[in-house]
Each structure stands twice: as C-alpha cells, then as structure tokens.
Design goal:
heterodimer; A: about 160 residues; alpha+beta; Alpha-Beta Plaits; 2 domains; three-stranded antiparallel beta sheet; two-stranded antiparallel ribbon; 3 helices; B: about 375 residues; Cytochrome-c3 Hydrogenase, chain B; globular; binds iron/sulfur cluster
C-alpha cells in the first residue's frame, strides 16, 4: 500500500509540475506582448543595423571622387588573413616631384573575418566597416573587390 | 553492477553517436559500448573540426592572434579574447586603465549569462522540452543586441585588445544593460518555474552522471562541472584578473556531483553574474579605454601563462616567446577537453537514455575541444 501511495503521489506531483509549466506556456501563447521574430527579408527597408556593425570593408569617397588612402600598407600588414593587397604606383606631380599613391586596393571579401584590425590600423581613417551583410554571389571571383574607384585621387591635405 | 557488466563480453553492442547527431551539439563522435541498455564504455573520437589554431597562431603577431581564439569557444569568445589579451599584457607589461578593466569584466559577465542561457535552452531540449529553448534565445537576443551595438559583432567580437578594449562603450550601453538585468531577473524565476521545479526533469537529472570530488580533480574538470562536485576552482576568486578582486560575488559550490547539481550551479552562476553587472554598471570609471601601446608588440624571451574563467571553466593561454613579434609556441588549455574526458567515467554503468542528459550538463562546445 505504501508503494502504491508513493507512486500515485509521484504521478500527481509530476502532473502538477507539468501543468505549472504548461500554464506559463499558455500565458505566453495568449499574451504575446510584442512579436520578437523579425520577418526578414520582408523588413529589409526598415532594418537598421548598429553603426558599428561589421559587414564589409569599404573606402568612402567624396563627391569629387577623392579618398583618404595614402597607400601606406599599414592595413595590409595588420590583416591576419592576407585579405588586403595594395598595389602602389608613383605619381608625378606637375612640379616634377614623385609621390607614392595607390594604384589598386584589392579586398578579398571571401577571406575577411571582420576582425576590424585593418580599420584600427589605418592612420588616416581611409577605410571603414559598412553595414551591408548580404554578400552571396554566384561566382567566387565577384567577392574580390577593388575599393578605390576608377579615376579617384587622394584627398588634399591627407598625408 | 559494474562487475556484472565487466563479465558479459559477448552480445555487446557498439553504437556510434555522431558525428552528425543533434544531441552532441556539434561534430563530436562517441563510440558507445552497450550491454543491453547499460553503458559499458564511452569513447569520444575527436578531430572532425580541428583547424590547428595553435599552429596558426605561431604565424600571427601578438595583436592578430587574439581574433582566432573567438573561433574556439565561440560562446565565450569575449572571455577567450580576454585571456589572450592578458597574456600579452603580462609579457609586455602594459597597465590596463581602470575603465577598460571594468568594461572587460562587464562584457565577460554578459557573455557568461548569454552562454549559460544557450546551455539552458539546449539542455532542456536535450531532455525533451522545446519551449525553454525559445525563452532562452529571446533573452540571449537582448545580450547579442548589446554586443552588436558596442563591439560590432554578435558572436566573434574581437573586442579585447592588448591594453584595453577596441572601442569605447556605446552611449546606450549602460541603459540597455540595466534594462536587460531588470528584465532577466524576473525571467530567471520563470525559468525555475518552467524547468527546475519540474518533477520529471528532476528525476531525469538527480543521481545521474555522478562524479566525485576526487575524480573531478583527477580528470582535470573545471568550471561548473567541478564546482558541482565540491571543488573550489573559480579562477575569478583564486587568481583574480582585472578588477575581479574588488568585486563581491559568491563562488557557487555544490557537493552532490550529479547532473542536477551541475544544472543548479549554472543557474546560480547566472544570478551571480547579474550581481556583478549590478555592481559595475553604474561605476564605470572615466578615463581611457585603451592604454597607449607600441605599434609592434614584442614579448621578451620566456614563457608566459595566464588563465581566465570562461563559462565552461578554466581557459589557459601558454605562450613561449623567443623575443620576436610572433609567438614561438602557443598552447591553449580549453575547459571542454578535460570536461569531456570525464564523460566516460560519469556515464559508465548508467543507461543510454541518460547519456544525453549527462552530456548536456557538461556544456560541451566542440570547436573548443578540437581547436
Ligand atoms: S577586417 Fe580583419 S580580416 Fe577583414 S580585411 Fe580587415 S584586418 Fe583583414
Ligand atoms: S587604407 Fe589606410 S592603412 Fe590602408 S594603405 Fe590606405 S592609408 Fe594605409
């Protein structure tokens, strides 16, 4: 009899604790204060990512097609994965002086781990992180990007 | 019971759990020898996600190698980064500003809560309850949003750098953390109601996966696994780093040594973490968030070791330096590896049905074990 009593008590207690849990589930089922699921990609237009979010490395250009990159290769050295490759050239100014400048700033998005080390290393704030995150493409080669726009120049006064 | 198993050699069944099995939480492969439903041996096979991180670190500079450690225990990435930053600071002898220390500890504790939350949801799912998983992820999302805003990433932050943190906290950081703490304090009581008090859950956990204090020490267990067996091993208490020595919190220790004790230790640790966050969030000192360091860091010739308490236990970084810009050798002591080695001891003699529950309470992260 003792055993049976214990058994029934255990079943009763189990059911009671289960119901207690179910009550909470039921409460949330009927009281959804706010919908926490984001319906991506339907909410693409209203989706705001924090400004520090690391999506990809970009080089901002001004309206007159000027950037701030001097070609010092500090970012290339700081990158742990060899994501950045900078090809420099010598520009001859009208006065006949030679000056180092970037020819091509190659960025391999497929190798980038978004660690932010290149951004921190850049002495002239020429590159920054963009908030884009939809990086899927059809060809792998599309992930290799040239960040300086064609015909762009170094901004005046940036050394 | 044990002797009886040892004598029946014939009719043993060998089954594979994993490497692709939802209960192993990653690519862990367990070869289990069974006698009927009783476990005779659990043999973990590793290496499915080995990336040779330690070797990789040898070719990276002391600033660069930190980011790779986020990819080991990805649920405690801040704390891993913290350990690596500490070893560089120890070698180069950088004094970390008070503000940076507080920000680091805050981030560590938020990470610990987030990690335990994910464990709690996954643990409950392992024993058959689906709802807790969604509850846990709802709260974890708040922490992830905080991290995203301040550090720029949700999982692999790379926010700790030698000398401090990479960027100052976001202006909204304090407000959002306070919001989270207030909300989570009521939620954690709900968790207890939903899972901890459940009789069915308790009977699946109590007395299952027992490991004694002596065995926990000899297997090298650390973190909540060891503390549930009565081993006092919290690095934050024993070898305090950054500003942990000035904080008031309790090291959660239980003596039962079973799965339920490990569960309770983690639940209480979340409360202690909230307690630490409460103490610090209004007391972030003004000042620099990063010490001035040389552009190229060089560790003097010698050996350096630091350890931190991650959500899973003791994480140690051992660096051998030849005086150059890259380490000569790096060894990581990851908590998951030692905790996994005790799984065999815990589950032998138990039933196969309890294996998943026991494994759940070990809180294994496979990339941390394989590296
Ligand atoms: S974010 Fe990191 S991996 Fe990517 S380019 Fe910069 S330094 Fe390299
Ligand atoms: S982006 Fe910055 S760090 Fe990189 S080459 Fe240009 S100026 Fe130098």
């Amino acid at each position: 009899m003792g055993f049976l009593g214990e058994y029934i008590r255990t079943v009763y207690k189990s059911v009671a604790s289960l119901l207690k849990g179910m009550k909470m589930t039921g409460y949330y089922f009927t009281h959804h204060k706010e919908i926490i699921t984001q319906e991506y990609p339907d909410n693409r237009d209203t989706l705001i990512l924090p400004e520090r979010f690391r999506g990809e490395v970009v080089m901002p250009h001004t309206e007159s097609n000027e950037h701030r990159c001097t070609g010092c290769t500090a970012c290339e050295l700081a990158c742990p994965n060899g994501t950045i490759k900078i090809i420099t050239k010598f520009e001859v100014s009208p006065e006949g002086k030679k000056k180092k400048a970037i020819d091509t700033f190659i960025y391999h998005l497929e190798l980038c781990t978004m660690c932010n080390l290149c951004i921190v290393a850049c002495p002239t704030d020429a590159i920054k992180m963009a908030q884009s995150f939809e990086h899927s493409v059809y060809k792998r080669a599309d992930l290799t990007k040239v960040l300086n726009k064609p015909g762009s120049k170094l901004m005046e006064g940036v050394e | 019971m044990l002797e009886e198993i040892g004598t029946t050699e014939q009719g043993d069944l060998i089954i594979n759990v994993g490497p692709q099995h939802p209960a192993t939480h990653g690519v862990l492969h367990l070869v289990i020898t069974l006698n009927g439903e009783t476990i005779k041996k659990v043999d973990p096979h590793l290496g499915y996600i080995h990336r040779s991180i330690e070797k990789m670190c040898e070719s990276l500079t002391y600033r660069q190698f930190i980011y790779v450690t986020s990819r080991m225990d990805y649920l405690s990435s801040h704390i891993n980064n913290h350990g690596c930053a500490l070893v560089v600071e120890k070698g180069v002898q950088i004094e970390v500003p008070a503000r940076a220390q507080v920000i680091r500890v805050l981030m560590d504790e938020l990470t610990r809560v987030a990690s335990h939350l994910l464990w709690w949801g996954a643990m409950a799912m392992d024993v058959g309850a689906i709802t807790p998983f969604f509850h846990a992820f709802r709260e974890r999302e708040m922490i992830n949003d905080i991290m995203e805003e301040t550090c720029g990433a949700r999982l692999t932050m790379n926010y700790m750098v030698p000398g401090g943190v990479m960027a100052d906290i976001h202006p909204d950081f304090q407000r959002k953390v306070k919001e989270f703490v207030t909300e989570f304090k009521s939620k954690i009581d709900e968790y207890d109601e939903l899972v901890t008090g459940n009789i069915i859950f308790q009977s699946r956990m109590k007395g299952v996966g027992f490991i004694s204090k002596e065995d926990a020490i000899s297997y090298g267990c650390s973190g909540p696994v060891a503390r549930a067996s009565g081993v006092s091993c919290d690095i934050r208490k024993w070898y305090p780093y950054d500003c942990y020595s000035q904080l008031k919190f309790e090291e959660v220790i239980r003596t039962e040594g079973d799965s339920y004790a490990r569960y309770l230790v983690r639940m209480e640790e979340m409360r202690q973490s909230l307690n630490i966050i409460d103490q610090l969030i209004d007391a972030i000192p003004e000042g620099e968030f990063q010490a001035k360091t040389k552009a190229v860091l060089k560790l003097p010739k010698g050996e350096f070791y630091t350890m931190v308490e991650t959500a899973r236990g003791e994480f140690g970084v051992y660096v051998v330096s030849e005086g150059g810009t890259t380490p000569y050798r790096i060894k990581f002591r990851s908590p998951g590896f030692s905790n996994l080695s005790a799984l065999d001891h815990m589950s032998v003699g138990g039933k196969i049905g309890d294996l998943v529950a026991t494994m759940g309470t070990l809180d294994l992260v496979i990339p941390d074990i394989d590296r």
